[in-house]
Amino acid sequence: MSITQDEARKVAHLARIKVEDEALPALAAELNNILHFMEQLNEVDVEGIEPMTGVTSMRLKRREDVVTTGEMADKILHNAPDAREGFFAVPKVVE
């Protein structure tokens, strides 16, 4: 697949990037290089390879997904300038 200068102009417009007409050949060439690299990546056999979450092989820390009350309402409301009946109190802004 090859990107033309008109297609490069359209991509620049969609990306909201101002590109002068004399820079369009270079942009089209760069986009073609990116597409060529992506085609090379498609040739790699990744059958049986697990996806990575980072460059080091670490398992993500997991916790049990349970609903809790947070058990911190008193600590949080202690920092509020005005708290009433277990809630933050704010000034009325609508008449």
Automatic annotation (TrEMBL):
Pfam families: GatC
Catalytic reaction list: L-glutamyl-tRNA(Gln) + L-glutamine + ATP + H2O = L-glutaminyl-tRNA(Gln) + L-glutamate + ADP + phosphate + H(+); L-aspartyl-tRNA(Asn) + L-glutamine + ATP + H2O = L-asparaginyl-tRNA(Asn) + L-glutamate + ADP + phosphate + 2 H(+)
Annotated Gene3D superfamilies: Glu-tRNAGln amidotransferase C subunit, N-terminal domain
GO process annotations (BP): glutaminyl-tRNAGln biosynthesis via transamidation; regulation of translational fidelity; translation
UniProtKB keywords: ATP-binding, Ligase, Nucleotide-binding, Protein biosynthesis, Transferase
EC number: 6.3.5.-
Keyword NAD (UniProt): no
One Gene Ontology MF term: asparaginyl-tRNA synthase (glutamine-hydrolyzing) activity
InterPro entries for this protein: Asp/Glu-ADT_sf_sub_c (IPR036113), GatC (IPR003837)
HAMAP family attached to this UniProt entry: GatC
Assembly mode: Heterotrimer of A, B and C subunits.
Protein function: Allows the formation of correctly charged Asn-tRNA(Asn) or Gln-tRNA(Gln) through the transamidation of misacylated Asp-tRNA(Asn) or Glu-tRNA(Gln) in organisms which lack either or both of asparaginyl-tRNA or glutaminyl-tRNA synthetases. The reaction takes place in the presence of glutamine and ATP through an activated phospho-Asp-tRNA(Asn) or phospho-Glu-tRNA(Gln).
UniProt family annotation: Belongs to the GatC family.
Family matches, as PANTHER family: GLUTAMYL-TRNA(GLN) AMIDOTRANSFERASE SUBUNIT C, MITOCHONDRIAL (PTHR15004)
Name assigned to this protein: Aspartyl/glutamyl-tRNA(Asn/Gln) amidotransferase subunit C
Species this chain originates from: Paracoccus tegillarcae
Lineage of producing organism: Bacteria, Pseudomonadati, Pseudomonadota, Alphaproteobacteria, Rhodobacterales
Gene expressing this chain: gatC
